[in-house]
Amino acid sequence: METREGFIRDFRGETIGTITQQSSAEEIFQNQTLRPILKLQNDLFLAVFANQISKHKNDFYNLSVEKKLHYIENVIQKDIKFRNSLKGMIISLFSLDEYAEYIQNSSSLNKRMMNMLIERLKSQVQLFEMPE
Description:
Elements: H1 4-12, H2 25-40, H3 42-55, H4 65-78, H5 80-91, H6 96-104, H7 106-122
Helix pairs in contact: 2-7, 4-7
């Protein structure tokens, strides 16, 4: 029977980005762990964010693109419960070794994680259209 560690790593896929001898531990973690997870979970993040928009019944769909981008950033930074939910979707796909590494520097890695997710959602803002 395959271990959880092996399954998780195989399921997520390969490293995304370049790792060199000059890469910091955070950059290595980002490219080996965070980027593959964010890519794998992309459709889920889109669905969760669309649900967040509909739950708060605001005028997101009537905002300009610039204001939509600001909204994405603002909701992830300010809504602690929502941000923690997003973090959970990422952390749940860590191996035990990766989790041990994460807890050593969680504050910095959380910032990196959320910034990458914000940029990912912003780059796909056109997918958030008013439901019919």
